C-alpha cells in the first residue's frame, strides 16, 4: 500500500521566544515493512543545525531558534510504501543491546495494578502471552483523549482505566518487561478507516519474541501493525520517541496545533 502523509506541527508563543533548541524525530526510514519513496521535513521560524542517528537509531534533526519569534511551524510530508508483515520486524539491531529494553522508566515501571493484570494473562508461549496482554489492555483501558498527558505513567492509566494510544503502549511495555520480555515504544502513523485527518501521531509497542525478533502490538486497536502503519521512532518510552522535544528560553506560554493526514494513494487522488 502506498501512503501519502502530511504532518504539520505549529507552536505559537504568548511572547516572542528568545531561544529554543528542539529535537525532531519526524523522519521515517526504509526498513522491514516500509519503503520511503519521498520525504521532506521543513521548519519555518527555526534553523536546522545538524542531523544524526541517536542511540536508538532514530533519525533526529536538531533545530534552533535564536532571536525573537512568535511561532514555529514544522512540516513533514512524503510518500511511503508499506507491506503487511504481521507486525514482525525481525532480529534486534542498532546501537543498544537487547537487555536495555528490560529497563524500567518512570512511565513504564510495573506496579501493583500491572502485576494484577498479569495474573490473568496466559498463553502457550511468549507470543501467545503478548497477544493475550494486548487484548486485556484493550478491554481494560478505554481510549479517551484528554484523560492523560505525556507524563502519565502506566500505573496511573490503569488506575483511571482510560487514556490514549501512548498509555496503552506504556502499559504493554511495563507488563512485558515484568515478564522479562524486552519491549520498546514505537511512534508513527496509522491510516484510520474512513478518517484521513487526525489530531496526533500514533503509538504502539514491540516485544522481542524468541524465534521471531521484534513483533508489534497495538493495544489501542487490539491488532498487530499491518500495512496501515508507518514506524518513525523507537525507545524505552515516549520520552525517547517523541516527535518534538527540547528546551526553550524566554517563553512563558505557548499553544500547540497538530494536524496529521494519512491516506492511501488512491484516496489522495480521489480527493484531489
TrEMBL record:
Q: Name one GO biological process term.
A: proteolysis
> What Gene3D superfamilies does the database record attribute to this sequence?
3.10.620.30
Entry keywords, A to Z: Hydrolase, Protease
Which Pfam families would you find in this protein's record? Bact_transglu_N, Transglut_core
**Where does the Transglutaminase-like domain start and stop, copy by copy?**
157-221
Q: Name one GO molecular function term.
A: peptidase activity
Classify the source by domain of life: Bacteria
PANTHER family named among the record's database cross-references = BLR5614 PROTEIN-RELATED, SLL1049 PROTEIN
UniProt protein name: Transglutaminase-like enzyme, putative cysteine protease
